[in-house]
Design brief:
Radius of gyration: 31 Å
Largest sheet: 6 strands, mixed
CATH class of the largest domain: Mainly Alpha
CATH architecture of the largest domain: Up-down Bundle
Strand order of the largest sheet: 10-14-15-13-12-11
Structural class: alpha+beta
Number of helices: 19
Number of domains: 4
Length: 619
């Protein structure tokens, strides 16, 4: 068993938070290398990591942060302007520190920690380069007031003793200045301890400003368990509230219980939410690195960094954003020369924004680059056999071809990206979050992607419908409208079956129970999605219903209308996994325990539309 394993894991977590802040601070420093406040913003987290690493005697981390500090001290105290090559090395330092901390965290979690007394060759080479850049200057202990200054003021030592200790510290890496003074016999331990206390008091006095909210660290497992328990409580409360109660006092108590349960549920969900800022900061760093590699000038503008999202959503959203931003930089933003020739600023712009909209979170990724050509997309789709000859395609349908696996209109595929390559992965990832993605583009002006996501992955607002005696839940974010169509609005199109003619739009119609294989007709009852296209086309589609309720579902630019027997009403439900046996079932994202204790399937609009579209075209 590793001694202080819990403390080491806590150090890793805190260090990673500091490294995330460092990325943003270095980006600011790169824009204003002479700004002392920007230098301090980089210095503080590095100094903190160094102190924590010293406590655990993590030598490699200590050496690396120590020499990085020296560069920042020289820049701050001597007015040295940091050159781009030096800032690049500081970015590299952050990356190497992150790797070292990841290794420590992984080993400690596995129960074995390798020796931290040696410096790996990769780290040693970076330390040497940083030392060369710093000129071996500025290795003194840094604080708001230095320890040596306090000892001199107290009369415990002389200034020459401090200078000698600093020289020894720089030449031999002999540890902290207080330790050097004690070992050399220049200062007594009690004097150093007294000076440290005074240093801490001075820092505390200078930092008596309004503080951020205090908090404690809670393991993710405990938090997930709490969310699950509150979900069970919500289900139990719904079941109690749906019972027939004739006692007025009991009814009042149940209403109070419902109110408290809802407040507890909202509070628990908020505990599971995190600001999207760290993810946006990582994307800003990504754009910087990719633009450097591509030889382009790109400015990133972040908006809505305080917007909070479910932790699981943030983790899953990272990969799609990486694909989209790499594409935007490599193939969307033009070269400086090309931009100037087009009358644009030679520095391209990428906008990354998060905002609340209609009960959902919208992530917008926009650039002012060359945009996408509809003609190129359509021609490429025809070459790949994706176009049905004779069919007229709308603009949205043409643009949606870029989400096909391996689709790309790039004339040259680079090692960074190919515009469109990986976009199928983006759509699938967004779909796994019960989200939808849409895009718009204009040649010469740029491209915009909108990702619409639910606030949380644990609870959703849904519309409960009934079809063939079974109840299903459509998430409200995918419902466009529900209506009872007139007979003349429903027509039969060749090879498309029944469609709804609604406000100059043609929307495919299908019985929900038929698509799910749950029809109450005389034919045998099949499992979900076993119907062939023959049974789901022409007169068989909705043939048992000339009239009825139609629920129109949207996924991006695609729409479909489902015939249902009854629209029960809107309610909030707790999402439950259906287990491994049903994992990956297309069109179903989970289940929910309803008021009567039975399970209702939560339907996935993206999966239903994809299944219908694939099997229709395949037929």
């Amino acid at each position: 068993m590793i001694e202080d394993a819990d403390l080491i894991l806590e150090f890793c977590t805190e260090a990673k938070e500091h490294l995330d802040n460092l990325d943003l601070a270095l980006l600011s420093l790169e824009e204003k290398p002479e700004d002392k406040e920007a230098i301090n913003a980089v210095f503080r987290p590095i100094h903190t990591i160094k102190g924590m690493a010293g406590f655990f005697n993590f030598v490699a981390i200590g050496k690396l942060t120590h020499v990085a500090e020296s560069i920042l001290v020289s820049a701050r105290d001597k007015g040295i302007v940091l050159r781009p090559v030096v800032i690049d090395m500081l970015f590299e330092t952050v990356d190497v520190l992150r790797k070292l901390i990841d290794i420590i965290q992984s080993e400690v979690s596995g129960g074995v920690l390798s020796s931290q007394d040696e410096v790996p060759p990769e780290v040693a080479r970076l330390v040497s380069r940083l030392e060369l850049a710093s000129g071996n200057e500025g290795f003194g202990e840094e604080g708001e007031k230095k320890l040596g200054e306090i000892l001199v003021e107290q009369g415990a030592i002389g200034e020459e003793d401090v200078e000698e200790a600093l020289r020894k510290q720089a030449e031999e890496d002999a540890g902290k200045i207080g330790e050097v003074l004690i070992r050399s016999g220049k200062a007594k331990p009690q004097d150093v301890a007294k000076a440290i206390r005074e240093q801490k008091n001075l820092k505390a006095g200078e930092s008596r400003k309004p503080k951020a909210e205090e908090g404690i660290r809670v393991s993710v497992e405990k938090l997930d368990s709490l969310v699950d328990l509150v979900g069970e409580l919500v289900i139990a409360q719904i079941q109690v509230a749906s019972s027939e109660v004739h006692d007025q006092k009991l009814s009042k108590n149940i209403a109070q219980l419902s109110k408290i349960t809802r407040e507890l549920q909202n509070l628990t969900m908020s505990m599971h939410m995190l600001p999207i800022r760290p993810l946006f900061q990582r994307m800003e760093r990504l754009v910087r690195d990719v633009s450097r590699k591509a030889g382009k000038l790109v400015r990133v503008t972040l908006r809505g960094e305080e917007t909070e999202l479910d932790r699981q959503v943030i983790d899953t959203l990272a990969d799609p954003l990486v694909h989209m931003l790499r594409n935007a930089v490599d193939h969307g933003i033009e070269s400086p020369e090309e931009r100037e020739a087009c009358g644009k600023d030679k520095t391209g712009n990428i906008y990354l924004e998060a905002r609340h909209e209609a009960g959902n979170i919208v992530i917008e990724v926009r650039d002012d680059g060359r945009g996408l050509s509809e003609k190129k997309i359509f021609d490429k789709a025809r070459q790949r056999g994706l176009v049905v000859e004779g069919k007229e395609y709308s603009r949205d349908e043409i643009l949606n071809f870029i989400f096909q696996p391996g689709f790309s209109t790039a004339e040259k595929i680079t090692d960074i990206s190919g515009r469109g390559v990986g976009m199928d992965v983006v759509k699938k990832k967004i779909g796994s979050l019960r989200g939808v993605i849409s895009m718009d583009t204009k040649e010469g002006e740029g491209t915009r992607f909108n990702i619409r996501l639910p606030l949380t992955m644990a609870i959703i607002d849904g519309m409960l419908v009934q079809s063939a005696g079974e109840r299903y839940i459509f998430p409200t974010y995918c419902i466009e409208e529900s209506l009872k169509p007139q007979k003349e609005q429903i027509v039969i199109c060749h090879n498309r079956g029944k469609v709804l003619h609604l406000r100059d739009s043609i929307i495919p119609l299908i019985d929900l129970d038929r698509l799910l294989g749950m029809s109450t007709s005389a034919r045998r009852r099949k499992g979900p999605f076993e119907d062939s296209i023959d049974e789901c086309s022409e007169d068989s589609i909705g043939s048992e219903r000339a009239e009825g309720l139609v629920m129109i579902i949207r996924d991006g630019s695609n729409r479909i209308g489902f015939f249902v027997d009854n629209l029960i009403g809107q309610q909030q439900v707790v999402i439950k996994s259906l287990g491994e046996a049903f994992q990956g079932l297309q069109g179903v994202s989970g289940g929910a325990i309803l008021a009567d204790g039975r399970v209702g399937l939560i339907l996935d609009a993206h999966g239903l539309l994809e299944y219908y579209s694939t099997h229709y075209q395949g037929g």
